[in-house]
Specification:
Length: about 160
């Protein structure tokens, strides 16, 4: 088969590029279509909502939407948060679904969610409580005391399928 003009070849290449971009966008948009299930052994905060320790599922708030709004629901259905998130990237995909928390003393804040096998995860916006703690780390607290022995630590929990 012989292509007689460059315009036809360009149309085929453009069509191929559109199909490729659509496939990549669709794959990235499906990252939390399958929920991550995890046992969280401590109380934690996400989007200024305090949730109790327990077994949770984390995934899209609506099945037909993207990953911007997530649902964090305990197995009993009694604790629930629906926070907004933004996309974050990594070069190395996680083997299993992973939750990343910030810990300050005995307070835990859900920071990121990483689906298994994906290089795109979700990051939650800092809650007012976490922003307050961070500002106290860099100066005096509202009581006038300098924050002591309080540094951010990262705690990782690997989910189960």
């Amino acid at each position: 088969m012989k292509i007689q003009f460059a315009g036809g070849l360009m149309k085929i290449s453009l069509l191929s590029a559109i199909v490729f971009v659509t496939a990549v966008t669709s794959a990235q948009g499906q990252s939390l279509a399958n929920k991550i299930r995890a046992n969280i052994p401590f109380d934690f905060i996400v989007a200024d909502k305090k949730l109790s320790s327990g077994k949770y599922s984390i995934g899209r708030a609506r099945r037909d939407s993207d990953d911007t709004v997530l649902s964090i629901l305990d197995v009993d259905g009694s604790s629930r948060a629906i926070p907004f998130s933004s996309s974050v990237q990594t070069l190395q995909a996680k083997d299993k679904g992973t939750l990343v928390f910030h810990r300050y003393g005995d307070q835990y804040f859900l920071f990121q969610v990483w689906p298994a096998g994906e290089t795109t995860g979700r990051q939650f916006y800092l809650s007012q409580s976490e922003r307050d703690i961070q500002s106290n780390l860099h100066g005096k607290s509202s009581t006038g005391k300098i924050a002591e022995n309080l540094a951010v630590e990262t705690v990782v929990i690997v989910g189960v399928l």
